[in-house]
From TrEMBL:
InterPro entries: FAS1-like_DH_region, HotDog_dom_sf. It comes from the Bacteria. This is MaoC family dehydratase N-terminal domain-containing protein. Residues 6-132 form the FAS1-like dehydratase domain.
Length: 149
């Protein structure tokens, strides 16, 4: 069962350098043919590029462990990105901070209660401006219901 006391736990800030080559690799991997991602020196990152932050997040920067979801019953339920201006361009240095925003339960349709955990990651540029926010939701399903003979 997830730990509701994890709400508010914040990881240490870490840095994500938005690099032209990484933007191009990500764009190609996702099937983009947009020249803004592939050809410009100041390439614009695709909207879901910020997913790559998981490659840069340090153990100290990741508060997810505090949630204590059972990974044998865990699922990635949702990922959302909110931008407060244009997506970051190549050459931008972002400071990222993740925190556990919520832990809650809902009754499932087949087999009991489900526990949801929500982690947000804020991305600030070099001036301290909030550029984007990623919201990731994980879910722990209830143990399968026993069948009657």
């Amino acid at each position: 069962m997830a730990n509701a006391d994890a709400i508010g736990v914040e990881g240490a800030p870490y840095v994500l350098d938005v690099e032209r080559g990484k933007i191009r690799e990500f764009a190609r991997a996702t099937g983009s043919s947009n020249p803004d991602h592939l050809e410009r020196d100041d390439a614009v990152s695709p909207p879901t590029f910020l997913t790559t932050t998981l490659h840069w997040q340090t153990p100290e920067g990741n508060p997810w462990k505090a949630v204590e979801l059972d990974q044998k019953r865990g699922l990635h339920a949702e990922q959302q990105y909110e931008f407060f201006g244009p997506p970051p361009k190549a050459g931008t240095r972002l400071t990222c901070t993740s925190r556990i925003a919520d832990v809650y339960t809902k009754q499932g349709r087949r087999g009991g209660e489900m526990t949801f955990a929500v982690m947000t990651t804020d991305f600030h540029d070099e001036t301290g401006t909030l550029v984007a926010r990623a919201t990731m939701t994980g879910v722990e399903t209830a143990r399968p219901a026993t069948e009657e003979a």
